[in-house]
Amino acid sequence: MKATVKWVDGVSFTAESGTGHSVVMDGPPDHGGRDLGPRPMEMLVMGLGGCASFDVLSMLKKSRQNVEACVAEVVAERADAVPAVFTKIHLNFVVTGPGLKESQVKRAVSLSAEKYCSASIMMEAAGVKVTHSCQIVDTLNES
């Protein structure tokens, strides 16, 4: 896996993945930025949410759950000192669909956290307390 990060100006950078996808990262105006994109540390949090979501959805599909929507709500806390590393990250998955089995959703979230999500497991190995939870929205019982 490769990426290239190019400085644009101020504290603005363009990052391109090895597969050719680009994203702009920028800082806040009080640090010389123009607020054109997410901060680099925000990218890590978004990447973690994407990695875990990929796992959860993949497992739910394999267990034949009819998922209509899946949202990973990620909340991260950072140390007050420099370097301002992550200390805690919580992922809450809100999974929507008709007749979803709670046991299957919980199992998918658990397996992602403990076995499959490289980003989550890497964060934990670095000393970050990573926790997970899930909620199910059953569209079968909606009126």
TrEMBL record:
Residues 19-38 are annotated as: Disordered. Pfam families: OsmC. InterPro entries: KH_dom-like_a/b (IPR015946), OsmC/Ohr_fam (IPR003718), OsmC/Ohrsf (IPR036102). Residues 28-37 have a biased composition (Basic and acidic residues). It comes from the Bacteria. NCBIfam families: PRK10738.1 (NF008009). This is OsmC-like protein. It comes from marine gamma proteobacterium HTCC2143.
